[in-house]
Amino acid sequence: MSDSQMHLAAFVTAGPGRPGGWRYPGSVPGWLNQSYYQNIARTLEAGRFDLAFFADILSVPDRFGGSTDTQLRNGALGSLRLDPLHVLATMGAVTDRLGLAATVSTTYAQPYTVARSFATLDHLTGGRAAWNIVTSFQAAEARNFNRDSQFPRELRYERADEFLEVAGKLWDSWDDDALVLDAEEPLFADPRRVHAVDHAGEFFTVRGPLNVPRPPQGYPVLIQAGASAKGKDFAARWSDVIFCSHASLESAQAFYAEIKERAATHGRDPRQIKILPSITPIIGPTTAVARQLHDELFELVPPLGGLSTLAYHLDVDLSTFPLDERLPDVEVPGVEGHYREVREITERDGLTLRQLGKQYGGRVEGGFVGTAAEVADGLEQWFTGKACDGFTVQAPYQPGGFEDFTRQVVPELQRRGLFRTEYTGNTLRDHLGLSRPESGEWTHRVPTARKVLS
């Protein structure tokens, strides 16, 4: 795919997702049925999307007032989340080209299990697997994994670096030609081409080898969303795709330039990292109808549902602040990118905390509201203005939001030559224009301090 064409990912939630969207009459509540996700997968593949992307969370968040009540009552972020790897397996069974991305945390998982899971998914789908790497930061998650509190930020990323190093070693533990399948010899797999990894580090001791051959893509596509200085450095070294969110074109352009520069500093080709900011387009036959739909969806957002989600993202108990005053400056142990985004919105629009909760829960990232042509105009402006390499499309409600985008906006982008009309490859790396990593590629991505240890 040419650099003159954008990439599209779909941000799918294995649960209700947005605190207002699930209440919309057009929303279909099939979150516990495989057919629900399979139908979304078929829609996205018909629209020639690069991939479907699933976020995940390992608890029902209780950061707002120390209770899960606002999450469960309002159907917010973590009120219901199925295991995304199992959901992707069902989607992979009914598609041939659509990439499939699942979030797995390096904080509470083990490298062998994760490397094995994604290698398996990559084989079963013919090279369409992607791993969204996260470092968990919530005490509620820690308490589900034998800890009273979360790891400090620095330690989370140090663990993540070693985790990725071990995963890379495990994917490389089979040479590409190790599986021989010579029945006459007999030689199933050549022992000389399957290697122990013998890793002994600060966080992990793993002998190897993996019991799954090297993935079709070499490594699954690696996705990351770090927005802190440490997170951006991690993403610039390891990521093939970066997921982010921005409150304005200008902040997206600044982030894009910074990440590409960081990648070059680490010796990587900046074109081998695709930056796909999140957008939530709302589309109508006329501008007025689209704005009416936006207003209807916005009215369905309960302010405390949005604040509960924001409290989770920031890792700050927002219930301690007056609802009818503005969000004060706070120290954010959680996602710095979300804090910068809401600070920008608060300062720009003068919102109280209550208003911010409603805005955050019903936010339309990028401000793309209008006809298909108007939404395409906005996407084209961001793409040609060096703010992104494409977009991660969130649906204001599922599955209808994806159906509207693929049937109305995608054809408009295709008419402008900005998006593919057919898949030209088979693997997710093919779709994204990413090279297949050679064995040992992980050695070029670990930080200098870890190279000395390795």
TrEMBL record:
InterPro entries: Diverse_substr_monoxygenases, Luciferase-like_dom, Luciferase-like_sf, NTA_MOA
Record-listed FMN binding positions: D56, T103, Y157, S228
Keyword entries, A-Z: Flavoprotein, FMN, Monooxygenase, Oxidoreductase
Biased composition (Basic and acidic residues): 435-444
Domain of life: Bacteria
Pfam families attached to this UniProt entry: Bac_luciferase
GO MF annotations, alphabetized: nitrilotriacetate monooxygenase activity
EC number: 1.14.14.10
Region described as Disordered: spans on this chain: 435-454
Domain Luciferase-like: 35-382
Family from the record: Belongs to the NtaA/SnaA/DszA monooxygenase family.
Entry-linked NCBIfam families: FMN_nitrolo
Name of the featured protein: Nitrilotriacetate monooxygenase component A
Organism: Nocardia aurantia
